[in-house]
Design brief:
By secondary structure, the chain is α/β, with parallel strands linked by helices. Helices cover 32% and strands 23% of the residues.
């Protein structure tokens, strides 16, 4: 229905500026013209999320004018899959000078995000970046300073906020049914298929992804910041590498030539994935990147179990954990309030029957899935001194992160400025605080001490987010 509405509105849109929503964070394209987009980083996330779906669904409003990557083979693959004929570049500054984009999409390795974000703004473009915005406090500072200096804006792709289930939770919290929120319990479980994949790829190295406390948990931290509408102040964490890496009984460079594949429960046959063979394996000769790396490689230096405690400016506390080798994929969250408690969960096997754990993540990421089903997610609200909980049913949305991917794209690439009463849009401040929580947790583990967010940034922290 949204797509049909956009098509009907295209005639009106051509007579006005194309605005990217973001409440106070508009990204403005030229009047009477399509928004000119350039993308740096043409791996799976770039092509599969920010590339092909945007071309297919928003071609009336946007135009890709350049693609950039260090791997020439992946660039050619990206252009083919996205069905665009724009020029390709190995040099980012050359692309910026040649194409002069309105908007740059950054989907490179996490630790390099800040380089392209800052340079893009300095060369006249607004930016949409994949989460995490970056991986350390120094890079956060560079981004914030560049945004202020140039007057350009950064938008962070926090698609979880837009998901139907998380939206339902946010709405119930805003209703005041459980009173003032005093604490949050949030536990995320990655199964042995999805969780293991982070230890095959570049994410396994702290220097590339800042550990999963940045790459993965910043997504979750942002959700809690959004739910509480308050800023984190103090962090304490535990973490260890106990299953992958050096803990393995054997190891090799990657799965295809591995002599232990018959005995390895984590063996990944990448040859069964045509898309990964075309995108990565066919172009290994250019950069040496192995998409089916061994999960037991001894260079792995990130944590596979993490537990984080956070105190907020509004005096709420967060108890969070991330497990990367669970037998099932899912999460649980609970909010304790002065008037009651809210409980919600997703993916717990005895609550959701018939789940194929091996393909669960692929289905979650699938941009082509149907938008709605006849099934519901449930939110349980138990108020004090009332025996039976209220059960709030939320219609399940399909298509990437509970329908969140489509809504995020719509807010950025669709025509016309859109109201944002739930404050969905995540700007640089949101991106910074979610990253800094991960950085603080990492430093807490390494130094075995409490870390204050104020140690890492000059960003003012508020009881209620500005």
């Amino acid at each position: 229905m949204q797509r049909r509405r956009f098509i009907k509105q295209s005639a009106l849109a051509s007579a006005a500026s194309i605005l990217v929503s973001g409440s106070a964070l508009p990204l403005v394209a030229k009047p009477l013209a399509k928004m000119k987009i350039a993308m740096v980083g043409t791996g799976g996330r770039g092509v599969g999320f920010w590339g092909k779906p945007v071309v297919e669904n928003y071609g009336n409003f946007v135009e890709f004018v350049g693609l950039c990557d260090i791997n020439p083979g992946r660039l050619q693959y990206a252009r083919k899959v996205m069905k665009v004929d724009c020029p390709i570049f190995s040099n980012f500054e050359e692309m910026m000078k040649t194409t002069k984009p309105d908007l740059v999409v950054v989907t490179t390795v996490d630790s390099t995000h800040h380089e392209f974000i800052v340079k893009a703004m300095e060369m006249g473009a607004d930016v949409v970046t994949e989460k995490p915005m970056t991986t350390d406090e120094k890079a956060v500072k560079l981004i914030m300073e560049a945004e202020k200096r140039t007057g350009k804006k950064v938008r962070v792709g926090m698609n979880y906020r837009y998901g139907s289930f998380f939206t339902g939770i946010k709405e119930q919290l805003m209703s005041g049914k459980i009173g003032k929120i005093t604490s949050v319990d949030f536990h995320w479980y990655l199964n042995n298929y999805h969780g293991a994949d982070y230890f095959r790829r570049w994410h396994r190295l702290k220097e590339k992804g800042g550990t999963l406390l940045c790459h993965k948990s910043s997504h979750h931290f942002d959700l809690v910041n959004w739910f509480l509408d308050s800023d984190p102040e103090v962090v304490f964490a535990f973490g260890a590498l106990e299953n992958y890496g050096k803990n393995g009984p054997f190891r090799h460079s990657h799965c295809r030539p591995c002599p232990h594949k018959a005995n390895c429960q984590y063996y990944f046959d990448i040859t069964r994935r045509e898309d990964l063979m075309e995108m990565y394996v066919a172009h290994e000769g250019h950069d040496g990147y192995l998409r089916d790396g061994c999960v037991y490689k001894e260079d792995i230096d990130i944590y596979d179990k993490m537990s984080v405690q956070v105190s907020y400016a509004n005096e709420a506390t967060l108890n969070y954990s991330l497990t990367t080798y669970s037998p099932y994929e899912g999460w649980r969250i609970a909010f304790n309030g002065t008037k009651g408690r809210l409980d919600a969960s997703e993916g717990i096997p005895w609550e959701v029957l018939g789940v194929d754990q091996a393909t669960l993540h692929d289905k979650e990421m699938d941009q082509s899935a149907e938008k709605e089903t006849a099934r519901f997610d449930k939110i349980y609200i138990t108020t004090n001194f009332v025996k039976e909980p209220e059960i709030v049913k939320v219609v399940q949305k399909k298509g990437g992160h509970g329908g969140g991917d489509v809504k995020l794209h719509d807010s950025i690439f669709g025509a016309g400025k859109k109201a944002d009463p739930l404050k969905y849009a995540a700007g640089s401040r949101d991106g910074a605080l979610s990253v800094l929580m991960g950085v603080a947790a990492r430093k807490s583990i390494e130094n075995k001490r409490i870390v204050k967010i104020s140690e890492l940034t000059s960003i003012s922290l508020f009881e209620k987010r500005p």
